[in-house]
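User: I'm curious whether this sequence folds into something compact or stays loose and floppy. Could you predict its structure so I can see for myself?
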Amino acid sequence: EVRPQIQEQIRQEKAQAEASRLAEEIAKEIKAPADIDRVGKARGLTTGDSGLFARDEPLAGLGFAQTVANEAFALQKDQVSGAIQTSQGYAFIALTDVKPSYAPKLDEVKDKVRDAVIAAKAIEIAKSRAAAMAKSTASSFETAAKAAGATVRSTDGI
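Assistant: Here's the prediction. I'll summarize afterward.
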């Protein structure tokens, strides 16, 4: 009965061991920042530039990867990391630029501010509509759904 689960676990363990072996092999080939692109291209791996980021920001291509961010902030300029395990596999990074933190000018963050305001207002509207629906459902769920333009359906077997 548990054969498929055991087989899947063994496959995952073998894949992890192979990924670890490959990461160690690649680490021997990467000594300088330029090696990352060269080795990645030769092996058909994805490479990219994360751009500047703060410790608590997501990284391009990796999302929130705290171990990678911690390593990036510990590296010296033009230094290369070893293999860093992430939720998506292994990563190698090189620090190419350091920019001290500063308060950006409005022109630099205008789009981010606009998007944040739109998202905040959308959440407020959704909350107020949900509250209004919750209040009106006290008398009749079907009536509240109809007023909101929704259809009430029953699902069997749940």
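Summary: The beta strands are 84-86, 89-91. The chain has five helices and two strands.
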